[in-house]
Amino acid sequence: MKIAQVSPLYERVPPKLYGGTERVIHYLTEELVAQGHEVTLFASGDSLTKGRLIAPIEESLRLQKQKKDPLVYHVIMLEKLFRCIEDFDIIHYHIDFFHFPFSNRIKRKHLTTLHGRLDLPDLAILYKEFDQIPLVSISQSQRSFLPWVNWVGTVYHGIPEDLYSFYPAKGNYLAFVGRISPEKGVDRAIEIARQSGIDLKIAAKVDEVDKEYFKEIILPLFKKAPVEFIGEIGEEEKNRFLGEAYALLFPVNWPEPFGLVMIEAMACGTPVIGWRKGSVPEIVRDGKTGYIIDSIGDGIKKIKEIDRISRKECRDHVLNHFTARKMAQSYLSIYTKLLYG
């Protein structure tokens, strides 16, 4: 099958540091290539792939010293795609709704995986206008806000089976990985650490839009709890950071569409303590691979019960349900359905 994967340009594929969407695109692309498919990746020029790479810009946008207009380069990418669109059996978009007016007017089969939140009011207006676009959700929870659109499947993210090493021994600190923002709930993680008296290590990026929140709200909390702020880390550092943790705290305060770090932690054997929001109940087996909580008090209580969780069961849960191979097979089934009915 000849497949085009169309990635956002904000991060390299795979990202050098933070970046869930582009990381998943990388795992999917490489697995499809390994299975014998001809895959062309539309992404930034610093991306790494065994497939064919077509790049509208030399370097991913976020880490460039001189800021560029992202709209310009995404338009160029779509132009490059449409110039050779006859080369592909199917186009797989990962760039939200930006391409909808264009892909709605071509005969080539396509689908769009939505990687973000769908609870914003304006999105309902947009998706009513484009209600025939074939869409894929990354959790059942994500699609609940727009149940009437043209969903053609739900595909959970997956990671390569050998990407993370298994750490059988429990660690001695709590881990938080992600970005500093109100919806990610790092303030909850800090309070859990403060009340439980267990060290918390935070590996997170701070976007420009969240710098004031970080400075005014989060930084003062560091003085009240046993917190070590590490900053943004990449995939190489993440294995040890997660594997040596006692538990991953995932205290989200929004309808999380998936939460890749949860399966990354469990792949290392590390249990997850996550808020009952968005996809968390779909990813974590409550009482088996971690705990699903509703409050800070719940979190403190469940930390004391982490020893009941089998780290091997955490690892097996990922190998059984969240591998790149399983993700690719699910997408191939959708491609086939769209192409042949």
TrEMBL record:
Location of the Glycosyl transferase family domain: 169-295
Domain Glycosyltransferase subfamily 4-like N-terminal: residue ranges: 18-128
Keyword terms: Transferase
Taxonomy, superkingdom: Bacteria
Coiled-coil stretches noted in the UniProt entry, renumbered to this chain: none
InterPro entries, sorted: Glyco_trans_1 (IPR001296), Glyco_trans_4-like_N (IPR028098)
GO molecular function: glycosyltransferase activity
PANTHER family (UniProt xref): BLL5217 PROTEIN, GLYCOSYLTRANSFERASE
Protein name from the UniProt record: Glycosyl transferase
